[in-house]
Amino acid sequence: MAEQILVHTGFHKTGTTSAQNLLRANRQLLRPHVSVHLRRHLTELRRRALRYSVNGLPRTLDRFSDAAHRYFEELAAQPDRPDRICISAEDLSGHPPGWDDRVLDYGAAPDLAGKLARALRAAFPKADIAFVLTTRAPEPWLDSLYWHHVITTPMRLSRDAFHARYGPGADLDNVAQGISQAVAPSLALALPMEQLVAERFGTAEALIGPLGLPDAVLDQIVTVPPARARLEDTLLERLLNANRTIEDPDALTDHKRRLMGKPPAAGAA
Predict the structure, then answer these.
(1) CB count, 10 Å around CB of 18?
(2) Into how many domains does the chain fold?
(3) Which range marks the domain in which residue 169 is found?
(4) N or C end: fewer C-beta atoms under 10 angstroms in the chain?
């Protein structure tokens, strides 16, 4: 069997966490059949990808490329490794739009994917390599992304202002086309979240389906509930108001955690 490599590089807020949770929950079952690499395995690659999406510097992209070559060369040298490899981390496309004012879109994603593809082909010259991208319709994606930023960053923009500023970068199918061109001759598939949620494994179908796992394995996979439910509108508005009124970053973080019923951040008084 030829080695098969599936690379899932995004996008944020398209069910990626739910898909990764299913892989994590079934890691013992999958281990003999597929080598799974998620966020925690890809710390250096993610860090360099995120940095490039902010500064866009050629040297930052080169460092990302170097890190990818090192990672995949070490992976290729591992003995007794399954012939299937699945890599899933949305941060490999960089920060999502709106993470801060410098990130207007996924403009960095094709550059990063191209470097990943070249590093994979160098380490696995005979492998079948495919990229899979989970997408979402622009309007609900922008809404989900906006409230995610309200929760996790000091986002102060109104919903309408956020849509106006970042709407031009919300066509994820267009980003996927750019990635497809960047990774050629490797394949790139764009799979809409709206269709995946109706599949047997939900959004994880984007990762499980293309791997061609035996039916005996598929029948034993344990499904998991969706990773996150939308918070109540009143709580979201209170979080937005906190962003707009609390200047101290630590105080803001702790206040928002209390609003969401979470304990104080580590090290907080």
Answers:
(1) 22
(2) 2
(3) 4-227
(4) C
143-197 pLDDT, tens digit per residue, is 999 999 999 999 999 999 999 999 999 999 999 999 999 999 999 999 999 999 9
What CATH number does residue 159 fall under?
A: 3.40.50
The whole-angstrom separation of Cα 193 and Cα 19 is 11
CA Rg, the chain, in Å? 19
Same domain, 117 and 32: yes
H or E, element range at 84? strand 84-88
Structure tokens at 84: 């299937």
Peptide bond into 11 cis (omega under 30): yes
| 155 & 167 share domain | yes
Residue 123 lies in a domain: yes
E strand or H helix at 132, and its extent?
strand 128-135
The H or E element that residue 51 is part of is helix 43-55
Residue 269 lies inside a defined structural domain of this protein: no
Distances (CA, A) of 155 to 68, 77, 162: 32, 44, 9
195/239 same-domain check: no
Structure tokens at 222: 């344990």
In a domain, 26, yes or no: yes
Same domain, 185 and 258: no
User: What is the pLDDT confidence band of residue 130, given thresholds at 50, 70 and 90?
Assistant: very high
Does residue 268 lie within any of the structural domains? Answer: no
Residue type, 70: R
Report helix, strand or coil for 1.
coil
Predicted structure pTM score: 0.94
Positions of E strands within 111-257? 128-135, 187-192
Is the model's pLDDT at 266 over the cut of 60? yes
Tell me the average pLDDT across 22-33.
Answer: 97
